[in-house]
């Protein structure tokens, strides 16, 4: 299966539907069943001490899998997150962007399952790992 | 075991350490191994259509368990979230605050485990359920 | 909502459909959206040292939520586990049965979500906590 | 880092410490921070209809990450599973062995985090995906 939406189409969708977060995320690559998304880390994502907050990392994993689904099924369906399990493994590097490698493991008619690795730009080991499930509403 | 920090002490801690989110959360009740926290829902927590976003609900569950731990062990230790598994079950009611009922199931020397139910104020069934693990650093 | 299957009906279903595990589980109570199930711990459930194994605790949480769903929707539907997140919190007491308190938090048309607390018979704190999601196939 | 235990050493450990499951698992490959383990599927792992049961898949993911940890830190430490989040994505093929690709994402002093993909031998998409956390007790 090949994606039906490319980088430009996904960015246009994000800007139109989620204007409040469009400046947070840059789509770096779209591939079959996978996307890479950069989170442009700003003051509002930080905890005291300069670490990116847990909710911000959750948001990045969530948007990564969401975009990977949309890339495959197109912008018409409204997928909804039903479950996320996330492990926070390392402290992100101070003041660096985060990179999310998201891939789909299952793209069913009703449920999609993906996992995401989040890296601190320039650091080797992943800072977080997440598995997410989305419910895909029936079209029609 | 009884809490070593009460509502006022937890609120002062939140205001001092997390000034950027202090207006989001109101601590409603502190009990042994449990707290109830209200999230004052504002524009910045919403998705298009007026639903509270997933990351905002994650943040509420996270802060709920965090405060339940602090209430028991005091403000000196710096607990860190290591895992969260969250189920999104219902769409929150439009424009309503969220209420988080957080309780600790285990408060060990090294790990604490808790779960949280999140309700949309005035709605019956929980909108989300989360289990969280925190790593508690050694005091020294 | 009241259960459509009682203890006797659930036990008969378990004996008929899952003969290989019917001796492992005793249904102790059935209530709206909840069941209590005992696991009769035997040699085959143990790890060296006499602790109940993780997979056995997983199996108990799984059967608990499964029976809670069946009690509400009847024996005709074939619910399938799609996700389980389980925290192992304490070592079960040596040679004691396990008790699972399972409750449903959501019973939708397509997905059911429940959580389970597992206790070692006679011990106070829960030994494990699990959240499970089941996919409910369409009838008809 | 290179493994300190190879295939033969891990198999001898498994046979000695877990005699009751040693026939279930074959270690196929050991690499830095990763192992591949085969589950030799037998009658006792099946649900009616011939599908491998959820608890059996959980057991395979658990043993896979456990062996990946032991391979790196040696047989002396007793690692304990503290959390597992598992997604069941596809029905395993009838009567086929399962293959678990386990890798460690973090191997800390106190906690290890890994993920596992489980395949039905000969089938393309993964049947299950799991993330696991282990607590590593202090040596000394």
TrEMBL record, chains A, B, C, D:
Gene3D superfamilies: Hotdog Thioesterase
UniProt entry tagged with the keyword Hydrolase: yes
Domain Thioesterase stretches: 49-123
GO function term, MF aspect, one: acyl-CoA hydrolase activity
One Pfam family it belongs to: 4HBT
Protein name: Hotdog fold thioesterase
Keywords carried by this UniProt record: Hydrolase
Keyword Hydrolase appears in the UniProt entry: yes
């Amino acid at each position: 299966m090949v994606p039906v939406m490319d980088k430009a189409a996904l960015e246009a969708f994000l800007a139109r539907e989620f204007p409040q977060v469009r400046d947070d995320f840059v789509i770096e690559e779209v591939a079959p069943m996978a996307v890479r998304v950069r989170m442009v880390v700003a003051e509002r994502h930080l905890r005291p001490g300069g670490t990116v907050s847990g909710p911000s990392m959750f948001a990045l994993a969530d948007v990564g899998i969401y975009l990977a689904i949309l890339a495959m099924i197109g912008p018409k369906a409204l997928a909804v997150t039903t479950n996320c399990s996330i492990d926070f493994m390392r402290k992100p590097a101070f003041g660096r962007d985060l990179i999310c490698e998201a891939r789909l493991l299952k793209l069913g008619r009703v449920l999609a399952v993906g996992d995401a690795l989040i890296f601190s730009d320039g650091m080797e080991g992943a800072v977080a790992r997440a598995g997410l499930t989305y419910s895909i509403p029936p079209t029609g």
